[in-house]
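Page 37, continued from 36.
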């Protein structure tokens, strides 16, 4: 398109918008002026009127015995009963990134969450962990399958916190 066509389209669209805005908006001279009355708030009755009738008096006895003995069982005892730890199954510590990726993918394919952490004693090794699980029983139910996927005889159940 050339410049003349673009400028023509621009002018036509601008005129159309001006006609829409000023042609269809209501004009002040065509609108009826209405008085708006705002009602006053209703007079308060009930508690306020009773409050005005209340009598004030002073207490003669100033030392009241207050029983502050705690009768509610301690929440600390309840929290100590609940096991808030999560558990993971340590498959092993590996050095090869290829072996680690293969194991992680195998567990994911089997439907188990798995992840890695740096080994605490040897920084060159990476631990492969399956989980976390809510209880040790969940790990024990699936331990044979964990071992079969990794090709090991046994792993280690560890307590794991976020």
């Amino acid at each position: 398109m050339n410049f003349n066509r673009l400028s023509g389209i621009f002018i036509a669209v601008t005129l159309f918008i001006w006609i829409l805005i000023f042609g269809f908006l209501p004009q002040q001279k065509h609108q009826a002026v209405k008085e708006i009355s705002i009602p006053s708030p209703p007079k308060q009755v009930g508690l306020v009127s009773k409050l005005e009738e209340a009598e004030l008096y002073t207490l003669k006895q100033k030392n009241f015995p207050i029983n502050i003995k705690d009768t509610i069982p301690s929440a600390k005892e309840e929290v100590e009963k609940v096991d808030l730890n999560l558990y993971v199954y340590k498959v092993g510590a590996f050095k090869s990134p290829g072996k680690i990726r293969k194991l992680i993918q195998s567990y994911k394919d089997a439907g188990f969450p798995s992840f890695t952490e740096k080994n605490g004693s040897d920084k060159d090794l990476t631990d492969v962990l399956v989980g976390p699980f809510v209880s040790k029983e969940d790990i024990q139910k699936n331990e044979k399958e964990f071992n079969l996927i990794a090709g090991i005889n046994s792993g280690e159940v560890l307590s794991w916190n976020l």
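The two ends are 63 Å apart (CA to CA). Flag for discussion at group meeting. The chain has a mean pLDDT of 79.
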